[in-house]
UniProtKB/TrEMBL annotation:
<dbReference type="InterPro" id="IPR024923">
    <property type="entry name" value="PG_synth_SpoVB"/>
</dbReference>
<feature type="transmembrane region" description="Helical">
    <location>
        <begin position="88"/>
        <end position="114"/>
    </location>
</feature>
<keyword id="KW-0472">Membrane</keyword>
<keyword id="KW-0812">Transmembrane</keyword>
<feature type="transmembrane region" description="Helical">
    <location>
        <begin position="244"/>
        <end position="264"/>
    </location>
</feature>
<keyword id="KW-1133">Transmembrane helix</keyword>
<feature type="transmembrane region" description="Helical">
    <location>
        <begin position="427"/>
        <end position="445"/>
    </location>
</feature>
<feature type="transmembrane region" description="Helical">
    <location>
        <begin position="401"/>
        <end position="421"/>
    </location>
</feature>
<feature type="transmembrane region" description="Helical">
    <location>
        <begin position="373"/>
        <end position="394"/>
    </location>
</feature>
<feature type="transmembrane region" description="Helical">
    <location>
        <begin position="337"/>
        <end position="353"/>
    </location>
</feature>
<feature type="transmembrane region" description="Helical">
    <location>
        <begin position="46"/>
        <end position="68"/>
    </location>
</feature>
<feature type="transmembrane region" description="Helical">
    <location>
        <begin position="465"/>
        <end position="486"/>
    </location>
</feature>
<feature type="transmembrane region" description="Helical">
    <location>
        <begin position="191"/>
        <end position="215"/>
    </location>
</feature>
<feature type="transmembrane region" description="Helical">
    <location>
        <begin position="12"/>
        <end position="34"/>
    </location>
</feature>
<feature type="transmembrane region" description="Helical">
    <location>
        <begin position="167"/>
        <end position="185"/>
    </location>
</feature>
<feature type="transmembrane region" description="Helical">
    <location>
        <begin position="492"/>
        <end position="512"/>
    </location>
</feature>
<dbReference type="InterPro" id="IPR002797">
    <property type="entry name" value="Polysacc_synth"/>
</dbReference>
Length: 539
């Protein structure tokens, strides 16, 4: 059973990673098709949608899978099936109500974002895009519950495959639709963005079809389990749903953390820019802050947290069993791995901000400056995600909600003043302050309830910082020498410059990490296994 569980977890993690990877890199052709101003319009539609869908689905697959697995283990297969059937009805109703709310309120949402006649887009145009994306709310909650059902039966393949198919279908429709509208039908950018956001509905349809196919394929086996039902437990679905809501709330808040910060920008950014006479460029700068640079910044976050989060279930197990020394050791490793992987990626993006922005989008001094400021916030994104997961592991998830609300409150208070002072960069500073406050609260809670302090790894953090300084010096020197030899406006040459500098920087960083034993201390037996395989291959 354990090998099956490990295999299933790996499949689900791989599916999630592939889906996120595709979601990060479609922006390159999309930006080329619609242009930089249109990305702000796309984001105006997606920010409220992301919040609606996160509230409707975040934590649901995990919560449902938890209860189905629990009652399956007791031989109460009928309970899980009842939960599944009633849940599909509830999620269908809530999904449709969420769609209606978002569709009807679209003009109101749009009026919050468009506050000045000098802005590029009108209230009607933004409302059109919000309505186009709202249709996905009809399907996605229903689909998330089906994924939870399969996961509850230790079957991770359906969730993983449906995630990847959903993302592929969405991206194909998004790119092809936007291109056809603009270049075949000679339509407007607004209509192209409407099609691009409607792609969320199309992707959801394909994801749901995959799940239906798996249901049909495995229904016979699932019905066989029903025949083995013990039917001895008196289980009230109302009690299960009550517990599901409590269980899912922390996941909802973690899931909507970044969208909530983006919502604050969506509500306040254009207003603040208009008050300082910058309404004409407000949409463009908003698109750079909340779409273009954010997509690049999130790359190291996805990679590092995916690796560090694999250690969190071990922390949960050790904490429940009362092994405090083991918990501290695992927390040490979690934070060290996170910083070891995230910090050099952030330093690299800061140093190579110009070619990075050019490779993804186009050569832009404003985009370069904002990306350079935004990059360090990736470390805060990663730390918040991991500390929130640790709070879940030590059963103190209620503080996740508190810390996030404190961060959002700071963002709300500081956003307009900082935007007036620093324009686009001001919104980033407010985000950094908010996330920083949340992380400090999370760490204090971890210290109190798990008796853990980052002081125990201060030496290792110092090593990581020192090796990053050495790496940065090497990359900066190489970039200074190589930069004049490349065309700053060329995407291909910018990508080549990034590759050369990144390889050189990684070589320096890993050389010192291996030489000092830091890499061995962090990755232990996994690294030794790779070394042995390499030695055997060399022999």
């Amino acid at each position: 059973m354990s090998s099956k569980l490990i295999r299933g977890t790996f499949i689900l993690t791989l599916g999630t990673f592939i889906s996120k990877f595709l979601g990060l890199f479609y922006v390159i052709p999309f930006y080329s098709i619609v242009g930089k101003e249109a990305t702000s319009l796309y984001q105006y539609g997606y920010v409220p949608y992301t919040i609606f869908i996160s509230i409707a689905t975040a934590g649901v697959p995990l919560a449902v899978s938890k209860f189905i697995a629990k009652y399956n283990a007791l031989g109460e297969y009928a309970v899980g099936r009842r939960l599944f059937k009633s849940g599909l009805v509830i999620m269908s109703i809530t999904g449709f109500l969420a769609f209606l709310t978002m569709y009807i309120c679209a003009p109101w949402f749009a009026s919050i974002m468009v506050v000045d006649k000098d802005q590029i887009y009108t209230v009607d145009e933004v409302a059109y895009v919000i309505r186009a994306v709202s249709f996905a709310l009809i399907i996605v909650p229903f689909m998330s519950l089906m994924r939870g059902f399969f996961q509850g039966h230790q079957s991770m393949g359906p969730s993983a495959v449906s995630q990847v198919v959903e993302q592929i279908a969405r991206i194909i429709f998004l790119l092809a639709g936007a291109y056809i509208v603009l270049n075949v039908f000679n339509g407007t950018v607004v209509h192209a963005i409407g099609v691009a956001t409607f792609a969320a509905f199309v992707g959801a349809v394909f994801g749901l079809l995959v799940l239906f196919w798996y249901w049909k394929k495995r229904k016979h086996h699932l019905n066989e389990l029903l025949e083995k039902d013990e039917s001895s437990a008196d289980v009230k679905l109302f009690d299960i749903y009550s517990e599901i809501v409590v269980y899912a709330i922390p996941f909802i808040f973690v899931g909507i953390a970044i969208p909530l910060y983006q919502l604050v920008d969506t509500v306040t950014f254009n207003r603040a820019m208009a008050e300082i006479g910058q309404a004409k460029v407000a949409d463009t700068v908003f698109g750079i802050v909340n779409f273009s640079t954010q997509k690049i910044v999130i790359i190291p976050v996805s990679l590092a947290t995916a690796f560090a989060m694999t250690l969190v279930p071990l922390v949960t197990s050790s904490f429940v069993s009362g092994s405090s020394d083991k918990v501290k050791k695992q927390l040490d490793q979690t934070f060290q791995v996170l910083l070891y992987l995230t910090v050099p990626a952030v330093v690299g993006i800061m140093l190579l901000a110009e070619p990075f922005y050019t490779a993804f989008y186009e050569h832009s001094s404003l985009g370069t400056d904002i990306l350079r400021v935004y990059a360090p916030v990736a470390i805060l994104f990663a730390l918040f995600t991991v500390t929130a997961a640790i709070l879940q592991g030590i059963n103190e998830q209620r503080f996740t909600v508190f810390s996030l609300l404190v961060g959002i409150l700071l963002k709300l208070v500081l956003n307009i003043p900082l935007i007036k002072l620093f324009q686009g960069e001001g919104a980033i500073y407010a985000t950094a302050i908010g996330y920083g406050a949340s992380i400090i609260i999370n760490l204090l809670v971890i210290r109190y309830y798990a008796d853990y302090s980052l002081r125990s790894i201060a030496g290792k953090i110092g090593q990581i910082a020192w090796y990053n300084i050495i790496m940065a010096a090497a990359v900066l020197l190489l970039y200074f020498v190589m930069h004049p030899l490349f065309n700053a406006d060329s995407k291909i040459q910018s990508t080549l410059l990034i590759a050369i500098c990144a390889i050189a920087g990684a070589a320096v960083y890993f050389f010192f990490s291996f030489r000092s034993g830091l890499a061995d201390a962090l990755f232990g037996t996994r690294l030794n296994g790779l070394k042995n395989k390499f030695k055997r291959a060399k022999a």
